[in-house]
Every structure is written in C-alpha cells, then in structure tokens.
Amino acid sequence: MPLTPEEPQIHESVPGPRSSAGSTRNPQTPRPVPAPGPRPAPPRPAPPGGGPAARTRPSPGRPGVPRPPAPAAAPPPPVPGAGAGARVQLVPATDSTAVETADETVDRLLDSGRAPGDILVLTTAEQHPWALHELSFGEDAYWKQLDEGGDVFYAHATAERAARRAVVVLAVNGGTDEQAAAALPAAMARAAEELHVCGDPQRLRALAGEVPAPA
Q1: What's 152's domain CATH number?
Q2: How far apart are CA 46 and CA 44, in angstroms?
Q3: Which domain of life is it from (predicted)?
Q4: Does residue 14 form part of some domain?
Q5: 101 is in which domain, residue-wise?
Q6: Phi and psi dihedrals of 122, rounded to 5?
Q7: Which pTM was predicted?
Q8: What is the secondary structure of 95-153 as a DSSP string?
Q9: pLDDT tens for residues 112-156?
C-alpha cells in the first residue's frame, strides 16, 4: 500500500548496510600476551626462635622527614636483696613469656649500644629456641660461638661452660623454686656489669631474699 505524504517513513536505526547471513566477519587481531618473566625467589625462612638472625630492626623513616623521639621507658625496679657488684634489674614476665621478654630485653640492650658479644642469655627450664637450633649442629660448633664471642650467646643456667660476660639476661621460664633460686646466683656470678632477670615478680622477690650477693 503506498504511503501518503502525511505518513512518516520509519527507518532502522542500525548504521550501515546489514551483512547477509552467509557473509564472514573478519576475526579480531589477538592481543599480544607478554612473555612470562622470572618469578621472584621466595624469602629464606628465618631460624627458629628469637635469636640474633631472627631479630629484625625497624626500618628508618623516609629521608627528610624527622622521626619523633621515642618516649624514654622507665627502668624496671631492682631485685630486692641484690648486693654490690652487677646492677640487677627485674623485668616482669610469666613462665610462658619469659623467653620472649628476654629477647625484647636483648633488643633494647643492642639498641642502647651494647655489643652482641657482651650479652649472655640464660634459661631456667627449656633451652632458648636459638640454643636448640645451634645445638642441632653439634656441641663443638655450639660452644665455638661462645669462644669466638662475636654474638649473643644462649645457654641453660646450669651450663658450667657458659663464660662470664658484661651483661646477663636470665629468663625464668619454668622449673622448680629450687632451680630458679640456684639460677639467680649462677647468673649473678656471670654478670660483670648488668643482670636482667625476666620472671614472675612475686616469685622472684621471694627467692631473691635467699640469694647471696655476688662476690
């Protein structure tokens, strides 16, 4: 039926000619895939425990941005009953946190300028994880590190071979009262300048009254 002049014509809104059903479409050019590069090597695991190689230092601030000074921490109270000689400080901890507290004490000593070879860490119950790690290579290699004196050394409080050092950190991480009481004078005898005792304050104060002053 022919259209009258008044009737508008309706056109399809698809631009350009419609392709026939049998026509082929040009395939799209595939996007280039970058060749796989070398994958970064996984980080090396740190030795177990909180020993020297396991400890990390905080990264310095960005250049040009001054870092605010850290607030000075109040020194822990001295162990009552300690006599003249090495300065004895009590660092509160439980049996389960004594080793971790001892590691934090070592970090503070190193940050204050103490040389690693100045520090001896003793435990009253289970050996420090770093001592267990080093002992796995044999006792000769373990004690050789003590003789070399170049790093923090970890031993049991009953180890007679543990030599005297400027600073001793004693972790009371378990054991009987008799074992802890015997560990205190043993640690004092090895501390030339400072002794830091990490343990239960009430228990240590009770035991410290029976501990003789270091010679």
Answers
A1: 3.40.50.300
A2: 6
A3: Bacteria
A4: no
A5: 87-208
A6: -120, 150
A7: 0.61
A8: TTTHHHHHHHHHHHHHHTT--GGGEEEEESSSPPHHHHHHHTT-HHHHHHHHHHT-S-E
A9: 999 999 999 999 999 999 999 999 999 999 999 999 999 999 999
